[in-house]
Amino acid sequence: MRNILHIFLITMIPGVEVRGALPYAIGVLGMPVWEALLAATLANLCIAPLFYLLEKPALAIVSKWKWFQRYRSRLAVRSKSTLARYGLFVGLALSGGRAEKELVLQAIATAGFRAVDMTDNEMAKLHVRYMVGGHARSIEHEALYRFEFPERPGALLRF
Questions:
Q1: Per-residue confidence at 103, pLDDT binned at 50, 70, 90?
Q2: Cα 37 to chain center, whole Å?
Q3: 64 to each of 10, 11, 50, 71, 156, how far by Cα in Å?
Q4: Cβ(65)–Cβ(50) under 8 Å?
Q5: How far apart are CA 14 and CA 7, in angstroms?
Q6: How far is 80 from 84, CA to CA, in rounded Å?
Q7: 140-149: per-residue pLDDT in tens?
Q8: Burial class of 128 by CB neighbour count within 10 A (0 to 12, 13 to 18, 19+)
Q9: How far apart are CA 103 and CA 86, in angstroms?
């Protein structure tokens, strides 16, 4: 029971969670795999309800501390920056030309949202095309390459 409590508490540490609790349970504590997996999974499922129950009381306590007040005010200022205003980047395939585009922009504005038309932005078009895995119909022999670099200092320089 003590081992299960250890795994439960380790799993609830942000960033460590199940990926840190399982090796500890199996390798260090010698728990059976099924027991370690069950304890870590149940603990991971308990995080959301606990957070929901403890969020308001915890914020009420830390809101009295000066450092937290400064942090919150800096966060509020940062969230009003230009980048935070753009919440959704969408690429649409329209066949009705400029008239259809204007109708879509008008519908978005009518719904109370702000839209930025990036039709002439080449970087935006490339981003949308490659993020969704599409291809340009006008390019016959287009190739898409993906590189993954190891996470160590200087890996990109030695490529």
A1: very high
A2: 25
A3: 28, 29, 22, 12, 45
A4: no
A5: 13
A6: 6
A7: 666 656 666 5
A8: middle
A9: 20
Of 94, 3, 71, 90, the C-alpha closest to 40 is 3
Tokens of 72: 């919150």
- The answer for residues whose C-beta is within 8 angstroms of residue 90's C-beta and 6 or more apart is none
Expressed in angstroms, the distance from the first to the final Cα of the chain is 50
CB contact at 8 A, 44 and 7: no
**pLDDT band, very low/low/confident/very high, at 80 (cuts 50, 70, 90):** low
Q: Does 112 score more than 50 pLDDT?
A: yes
Q: Secondary structure of the chain: what % helix, strand, coil (to 5)?
A: 60, 0, 40
pTM: 0.38
Average pLDDT rounded to a whole number, residues 73-94: 67
Task: Pull the structure tokens for residue 26.
Answer: 């199996």
Q: State whether residue 89 is helix, strand or coil.
A: coil
- pLDDT, the chain, mean: 79
